Amino acid sequence: MIFRLGVTGGIGSGKSTVCKIFDVLGIPVFSADDEGRIIMDTNRELINDLNKLIGENLYASGKLDRNKLASVIFNDNLMLKRVNSLVHPLIFSRYQEWCKQQDADYVILEAAILFGAGAEKHVDKILTVTAPLEERINRVMERNLMSREQVMERVKNQMPEDEMVKRSDFIINNSENVMIIPEVINIHTSILEYLKK
Ligand code: ADP
Description:
By secondary structure, the chain is α/β, with parallel strands linked by helices.
């Protein structure tokens, strides 16, 4: 089986930015979050299940009302777990199929939630991207045009950064003044060395 690196980190830490650099190095990236969005927009059975679970039509305009979904699940932990238990297995089965089709030295699974979602068993090593909370908040407010409170809702639903770091094999600190390209290249090189053995 192809070697799989998991890339995780809190919202706004810079996971996607780091993954873009791996992509330039020729490493295919599967984004669990992007795939989740696609599945929630297109999988008929899931759409029915979600509407049933939430108890209202989340697709009134024809497209998933993400704000409505977010306002339900980020205020109700049980609902968040239930939605995840519908969506996650579909993402992982797509990911497993995708892995089989890749021809590269290794692949990346990029996921905001890697720990606790059963995703750890789908990767061989884990890289966590970190950044100071204040920087993360400002980045996401700018990127998603969200208020500080909306960003904090998401931050609070994620595992604390130090907990992720403890369970990781590699760490990249993506603070404003740090050069991350050399760090990515170092990790890339050490994985290639490890795979040669
Ligand atoms: P994540 O995928 O972890 O949510 P992103 O990679 O999308 O984070 O980064 C969040 C936002 O911050 C993006 O708009 C990105 O361009 C920007 N960003 C990422 N790294 C830095 C950095 N070191 N300095 C400034 N802005 C950054």
